[in-house]
Amino acid sequence: MTPQAAPASAALGFLVPTRWEIEVTCAAATALVLLIAALYALLRPRRAPAAADGLQLVDKVSKSTAAGAAACLSVQLKLLAAKDLIAANLNGTSDPYALITCGQDKRFSSMVPGSRNPMWGEEFNFVVDCLPVKIKVEIYDWDIVWKSTTLGSVTVSVESKERSGPVWHTLDGSSGRVCLHIKAIRVNESSSRALNNSAEADARKRMSLDKEGPIVVHQKPGHLQTIFGLPPDEVVEHTYSCALERSFLYHGRMYVSLWHICFYSNIFSKQIKVELPLRDIDEITKGQLAVINPAITIFLRTGAGGHGVPSLACSDGRVRYIFASFWNRNHTVRALEQAVKNFHTMIEAEKQEHARSALRALSGSRNNSMEIDVPEECADLTGLPQPFVKEEVLVSVFDGTFPCTADQFFNNLISDDSTYTAEYRTARQDKDINLGQWHLADEYDGQVRELNCKSMCHSPMCPPYSAITEWQHTVLSANKTDLVFETVQQVHDVPFGSYFEIHCRWSVKTIDSSSCSVGISAGAHFKKWCIMQSKIKSGAVDELKKEVGEMLGFAESYMLRVSFPTQEDNTAPDADDIHGDQ
Fold first, then answer.
1. Model-level pTM?
2. Rounded Cα–Cα distance for residues 442 and 474 (Å)
3. 243 and 250 in contact (C-beta within 8 Å)?
4. What is the domain-level CATH number for residue 521?
């Protein structure tokens, strides 16, 4: 190196880090990464508890209804007024609202602007399992930008159903009192509200159980899970950009699912989360803000209370939320109204299914001493008499003849003395076969019985044996020339098993003394929509066509053995020739 180059290298030497500087930098970077990971683990939403909270209301009603009317209680809290609240604003007033908590359920009152002595007169209903129960009332001051300030709180214990008038309770703050009127009443288990909530509980449990099959699908959490902590089975059906109206327009996004209408906004670091259950929505109307801003007003039923943030009060006791700044307000209104309509249709279908199950259980328990009470609302839904299968789902799978009369078909194949069903199921390698006796049913013409068994399943999506319940119904004409044999089959241990039933009808008509015509139609009846609906329908029809051929072949060989008991049975099919229907 030349003498001139040595000073230049020494001058640039400070740009090269030393070994000690490199070690310190790596250690600091590692510590920073670990700190960020720890904070994320502590602050990220916990989905499982939130999912349980989302089902708590309907689960409470469902459990209480099952336990009996004495255990189903509704706590009605009327938030009447407050006085002498703390002045949180610089002008000596407050913008108070109340947060009422009963167990895991939380409800928001409306916000009264510029008052230390607010008048609310709002009602909140909570469903509880039993008494005593504690209700916490917290009063906050609403702030447009900053976090709400606590003005005081009080916890009230409801010990019994004894009625009492309004009571003033002292807040735990420096000053202030709140007037509450609380009463607990018994909810009739057959009331419309109890039936609706029980139906919603059954619908949600069906979805939850279907998710817990032998196949576990790992799905990335969506906005409803990460933001609102809703159950994993809720997915976003529609999403819209809009704003929540208060004294300030909080711009954010609206998310619509099968169960909720949600809104999220994060303006000036103030997070707003609104969760409106579709069961609480009473009305959806169109309106205007500032003449040119199209808006949508969502009214909640009386007693529902606000969800997520303070609501806007109405003179008729309802509460409302106003959303504005939609790109296409009319399209959004139609989508929201359709979501509410679909929800109520699903609940009504669940109620009717509950009614049919109760009637079938009632029919199946005729020989038992235990009585099953069917709610009057359920009887009104089903009517007497009623069809056993859904006519609209049936498609023809077989038309032909059979070598016997309709009367012989009944006596030899499906009567109580016949062993055909048990032998056929055994040949299919089914097990735990339990076939009930025919008995009269008031709700259906003819007779009914129930078959329970475990059937082999060869599909990789099913367990080796699937539990099956099959309700059977038969009507034989007075002259014994026309026979109708119908079945409704429910498979319990397969994916989406609770979504559908297999309906089948056999129509047998005597042609002459040695033959009859047999027409068989079948199809899959879906109690609710699922993503595999079309595939299940087509697959069910194909499997039924195959099974009908096997059943008729086995029936013909069985008839020969019954008619000629001394003849060697060389025509009966082997067990290996009979395959499962799953």
1. 0.51
2. 13
3. yes
4. 3.30.530.20
